[in-house]
Design a protein that fits this description.
Elements: H1 2-8, H2 13-16, H3 18-25, H4 34-39, H5 45-58, H6 66-75, H7 77-80, H8 86-93, H9 106-110, H10 115-130, H11 137-147, H12 152-168, H13 183-194, E1 202-207, E2 214-219, H14 221-228, E3 236-246, E4 249-258, E5 297-298, E6 301-309, H15 314-326, E7 337-341, E8 348-349, E9 356-357
Parallel strand pairs: 3-7
Antiparallel strand pairs: 1-2, 2-6, 3-4, 4-6, 5-6, 8-9
Helix pairs in contact: 6-10, 10-12, 11-12
Length: 360
Amino acid sequence: MFFNRLVRNNSVLPKMGLPLYRTLCEKPTQVVTYRSFEEIETKNKNTYLDMIHIFINRDNVYRRGHVEFIYSALKNMEQFGVHKDIEVYKALIDVLPKGKFIPRNMFQVEFMHYPKQQQCIIDLLEQMEDNGVMPDYDMEDLLKNIFGNRGFPLRKYWRMMYWMPKFKNASPWPLPNPLPEGVYELAKCAIERISSVDIQTQITTYQSREEDTWIISAQAPIQKDLLKRHDVTEPLYVEGPFRVWLKNQQVTYFTLRKNSKLVTTINEDLDDVSDIKIPLFGIKPIKKLTVVPSVHEQEDGTILGLCATGTSTKDSLVSWIRNLEKDGNPVLGEVPIVFTLRSGSKEIVTLDSTKQIENK
């Protein structure tokens, strides 16, 4: 409006020139909003990086709206399948202009110079940590060029570089990275992890006759021996489904269980001196022996086997019991078996990904 009034007076236009006037009167460049990510049909890494390059090229100097753009990009990372790609995270950090946010004195350092931009990158690093993405040294150089050596995002980076390598290999049950996409491979990894308490456990794959599906079974020689000595008048129980999580994937499994036998424990008070037995005077101490229970014998029951099936239905579990009977467990043909299956879990809706896990 200001320039339009000056043009009407014909006082400024001859001095500034028509090209400069058109440049000043042009509308400001619009930044890419979060709807641009959602409207893309082909969602992959290349299109995601193209969106970042488009935003940088539109305003290469000031890059107005960079905080809003980074937040919208973080929100849509999982839809593009780049939420575990460190190259994409570094491209998002590179959106911020260099040198402008570096504090110049100790007051700017302690009072979080440009807090909106620093908190944005801290949230980006938090999302990296949640997705198990470990930063590298190139990211440290990026953060130094943007926030200097005393920025809060750089402190967050140093803490991640200290703790994440320690926790990366701390688990005694390592998983392949990335996880296999097939359900069969995931179920096999889950059964191997659960049954690793006994190194003699044998993993066997059966094919169900009732249903066209697979069955992954785990049973140790000790479990077969416990099943062989089981009283045929007492029932066995097939229970489940239980959940086990492999990173962000869940697998359901079932167990074959029998009731535990109550073991009488002898509690002896070592401080009681009323009846002291002295072996030197011919009185032999009473020694009571008991069988040490195996790792499969727990207080709530004895686990005789476990499995995971492709359909998690009762028919597939019946086929599992029949295959166990043929595989060195003939007592299963004489013992009554009770299927105590729980109902399917309710649908779980996550606010971030809006994905549903349907009932089985």
